[in-house]
Amino acid sequence: xxxxxxxxxxxxxxxxxxxxxxxxxxxxxxxxxxxxxxxxxxxxxxxxxxxxxxxxxxxxxxxxxxxxxxxxxxxxxxxxxxxxxxxxxxxxxxxxxxxxxxxxxxxxxxxxxxxxxxxxxxxxxxxxxxxxxxxxxxxxxxxxxxxxxxxxxxxxxxxxxxxxxxxxxxxxxxxxxxxxxxxxxxxxxxxxxxxxxxxxxxxxxxxxxxxxxxxxxxxxxxxxxxxxxxxxxxxxxxxxxxxxxxxxxxxxxxxxxxxxxxxxxxxxxxxxxxxxxxxxxxxxxxxxxxxxxxxxxxxxxxxxxxxxxxxxxxxxxxxxxxxxxxxxxxxxxxxxxxxxxxxxxxxxxxxxxxxxxxxxxxxxxxxxxxxxxxxxxxxxxxxxxxxxxxxxxxxxxxxxxxxxxxxxxxxxxxxxxxxxxxxxxxxxxxxxxxxxxxxxxxxxxxxxxxxxxxx
Length: 455
Description:
The radius of gyration is 22 Å and the shape is globular. The protein has two domains: about 1-30 and about 255-455, no CATH class; about 50-250, no CATH class. By secondary structure, the protein is mainly alpha-helical. Strands 1-3-2 form a three-stranded antiparallel sheet. The chain has helices at about 40-60, 65-80, 90-95, 100-115, 120-145, 145-160, 165, 170-185, 190-200, 220-250, 265-270, 295-320, 330-345, 350-365, 375-400, 410-440; strands at about 255-260, 280, 285-290. α6 (about 145-160) packs parallel to α15 and α9 packs parallel to α10. Belongs to the glycosyltransferase 87 family. One of its GO terms (molecular function) is hexosyltransferase activity. It is a multi-pass membrane protein. It comes from Propioniciclava flava. Its main location: membrane.
């Protein structure tokens, strides 16, 4: 990836933020202009790609993906509630989809309770919900960062095939994306609410909470996050109880090594050569790998996670000392999320969707005029790399997934694709961290506790 500090970037990005300008709460420059028929073109692109993805990846092949699991869980919960021995909603929710936070479980139960009581209609309801979330984020991108940001988002979600349509992950991804846009605009209070909502749906958006330090109104931002979080916790406890509130955190505590995880790559290669490892379907609804070398791989993943946390803390501290400029926000977000993904013992195809909003925001920022815009070429290189990784992920699942579950003639090729995708994820994460470090610059004389805070 091209260095973020290249001097041959387009001239509109040559202006760098001064130490003083980066710490001000000035509004960023407006979005790239919508000229001529650009609105119609972008809307047509979004609608066309959603229609194409729906037909090719869902309706043409009769794909249900996780919506069938959601449907079965919702049906069982509704049946349990209707039983003569039924308990409260709290009891029902405590048993339904414990890996999801309570608000997400409610959301997944709602279509069934509202009449989508067969797999096909339930799938349609989930697709409607995910498409609406996709549309909301696309509109936010368009209104704030311009058409290039929206088209980048469309490209990435299209490259992921049917996953954005059929997985709940679209909702927390959109919420985290909206939060990042609001942080770029220095609207930390609203960003805090968006992060709280995203966390209530799938926990991981809390990873980007350090970005709420952007701007001088950081106290308001964190108070907003805390208050919103407390409200959601109270509602969750009321609806599902304390055990249900904590279940998303405890549910995966004993998980093994998922076959797609970066740490599983060596074990998967040995499995492909029939060297003692084996694949099994675990109680966590995932394919995991076991056998010689797997405990060591899990230990290596934990050590890597500690190193990644330290590196991310150092990066955020550098950003704080520089006065929290907006230029590196997209890269910082990619680094934080990417570090979590590449060091986790679990890695599923939809995790790539977590990265897409940050890349779209980054490219949207880079397409604007002004000193707060990140350099264009490194931003574009980041987008292209992520798009390639999304395509490879779609090749892995659903195209070649069977070859990763049983050894066939296609298994060697599938393992090569898996290795390329996982190595690419590590490269993306490290390159994003380097780009964020270089672009941050700014006033290194300030200490975090010396930065002004106002409510």
